[in-house]
Amino acid sequence: MNNVKIVYNGMEYLFDSTISIKAKGVMAMMVAYANKNSKNVFVLDDVREFCCDGKTAFSNAVKELIDHGYVSMTKTGNGFAGSPWEFILKE
Q1: pTM for this entry
Q2: C-alpha distances in Å from residue 48, one per residue of 17, 18, 56, 72
């Protein structure tokens, strides 16, 4: 069981009844991706490639997390299209 991940009560978003199960799943994916890759700057499509939902559904879930204060984003790099975003995740 070397690859077991623990979900703990400190992950407040899991117990927030005002956000959808899809948003909770996307948040869990973002946290896992950031932890696995030891970085908080990534292209959202890098995370989205691991799910079967379309870009719009995925983006809507991220927007829901932003609207509820679980995610904030800051543009990094040169500011041009395709530059990565820095995601600040509130667990």
Answers
A1: 0.74
A2: 24, 23, 11, 17
Instruction: Tell me the three state secondary structure of residue 47.
Output: helix
The 10s digit of each residue's pLDDT in 11-30 is 788 889 999 999 999 888 88
Task: Output the six-digit token pair for 22.
Answer: 């899809």
Sheet of 71-75: strands edge to edge?
41-42, 85-89, 71-75
Q: What is residue 27's three-state secondary structure?
A: helix
Residues contacting 27, CB < 8 A, separation 6+: 13, 65, 70, 71, 89
Structural domains of the chain, with CATH = 12-89 (1.10.10)
